[in-house]
Amino acid sequence: MFFDVTIIGAGVVGLSIAKFCSEQGYSVVVLEQKSRAGEGISSRNSGVIHAGIYYPENSFKTKFCVSGNELLYEYADHKRINYKRIGKYIIASNKNDIEKLHKIYRQGIKNLVEVNLLSHRKMKEIYPELNIEEAIFSPNTGIIDVPELVSALEGDIQHNGGLISFNTTFISAEKIEQGFRISCDDGTSYKIDSHYLINASGLYSDVISKKIDALNDKDFSLIKYAKGHYFKYNGNHPFTTLVYPLANEFSSGLHVGFDLSGQIRFGPDITWVDEIDFSFDENLKDKFIKSIKEYWPQLDSSKLHPDYVGIRPKLQNFNETMKDFSIKDFNDHGVDGLINIQGVESPGVTSCLSIGKYVLNLIKS
Predict the structure, then answer these.
(1) Based on the domain organization, do 307 and 235 belong to the same domain?
(2) Number of structural domains found in the chain
(3) Has residue 161 been placed in a domain?
(4) For residue range 210-263, what is the model confidence (pLDDT) as tens digits?
(5) CATH number of the domain enclosing 131
(6) Cα torsion for 153, 159, 160, 165, to the nearest 10°?
(7) 344 burial via Cβ count (<10 Å: 0-12, 13-18, 19+)
(8) What pLDDT digit, counting tens, does each position of 65-112 carry?
(9) 125 domain residue, yes or no
(10) 0.90 surpassed by pTM
């Protein structure tokens, strides 16, 4: 079997790349070890369409998030994917954090994101039950039904003649003259040849990288696992928008999220772990209660219940500041036809269509 493009990983990034490549007439196969698409990072996040406020202006995260925000809303309209442009407040709950909030506001302005700075008095009118000294409002932040997004991307790939091979383990890739000879196993071992190989395997991107014979160890990063817990809240609450307490260097804080039915949840926290493990640590409840009560003192802790867990594929260690998405091609690692993608965490869902377009242009160039 021969394909123009082989993609490892059927999360929203891998599927977006496959969508754009198949639209251009490339023969495409996506190899996915699980039985369904989007079962990894894509299905275990906040489902937020971010605006691109926090990140350095010249980073991939800002570039792909700002353009991806617009692309994702357009795509959702076109495909009738459920979403809500619900808006987001980034809040300072005490006076000591106001300068930090202003710094985020200035970064949003640099990133050409629509943001508004709101006073204590204004926020008392909007959210009288919350402790808010000042806040940033982002009107273009929203929430999206990620399973519907995954299904829409799958439909596009299939419509364009692309293939998604589920329950398929990537074994290895050997560099050959016209591209790669890729060994796979779906219960039966077989090989395919492909001009281009794209590693979009998320949490497993370092494991996959080690199995590409032409890629040197110095040209990819080991993934660190940042586990995030979400607690849902089953009771009355004042929230009508997303609310994000101020982030620190390593986490966006225990924010208030919504699903499209109106159910609210708090999280994610950040717990560094050594292996991929989606078990829920209910002992974190007290930590969540303390954090949430800093901005919502009336929280009824008896109505806070475990929801789900996600794991973010970090390129940095727990004591390092944020690292950008990593998308490396021939110019970076010297392996012709290989595009190696690592560290796509938040804002990965928002960025997926922009990353898909970017990778297509790398292939075409």
Answers:
(1) yes
(2) 2
(3) yes
(4) 999 999 999 999 999 999 999 999 999 999 999 999 965 444 468 999 999 999
(5) 3.30.9.10
(6) 70
(7) buried
(8) 999 999 999 999 999 999 999 999 999 998 989 999 999 999 999 999
(9) yes
(10) yes
Residues 360 and 330 in one domain: yes
Residue 70 domain flag: no
176 and 30 in a common domain: yes
Only one residue has tokens 């208030």, namely 256
Are residues 310 and 227 part of one domain?
Answer: yes
Whole-angstrom distance between the N-terminal and C-terminal Cα of the chain?
25
- Three-state helix/strand/coil letters over the chain: CEEEEEEECCCHHHHHHHHHHHHCCCCEEEECCCCCCCCCHHHCCCCEECCCCCCCCCCHHHHHHHHHHHHHHHHHHHHCCCEECCCEEEEECCHHHHHHHHHHHHHHHHCCCCCEEECHHHHHHHCCCCCCCEEEEECCCEEECHHHHHHHHHHHHHHCCCEEECCCEEEEEEEECCEEEEEEECCCEEEEEEEEEEECCHHHHHHHHHCECCCCHHHCCCCEEEEEEEEEECCCCCCCCEEEECCCCCCCCCCEEECCCCCEEECCCCEEECCCCCCCCHHHHHHHHHHHHCCCCCCCHHHEEEEEEEEEEECCCCCCCCCCCEEECHHHHCCCCEEEEECCCCCHHHHHHHHHHHHHHHHHC
How do 304-314 and 224-233 pair as beta strands?
Answer: antiparallel
pLDDT digits (tens, 9 = 90+) for 304-328: 999 999 999 999 988 888 899 999 9
310: which 2 tokens?
């996600």
* pLDDT tens per residue, range 151-197: 999 999 999 999 999 999 999 999 999 999 999 999 999 999 999 99
What residues make up the domain containing 127? 86-142+223-314
In single-letter form, the type of residue at position 274 comes to D
Q: Which of 277, 294, 314 is the last residue of a domain?
A: 314
Question: How does the average pLDDT of the chain come out, rounded?
Answer: 96
Q: How many CB atoms lie within 10 A of CB 214?
A: 17
Judgement on whether residues 306 and 326 belong to the same structural domain of the protein: no
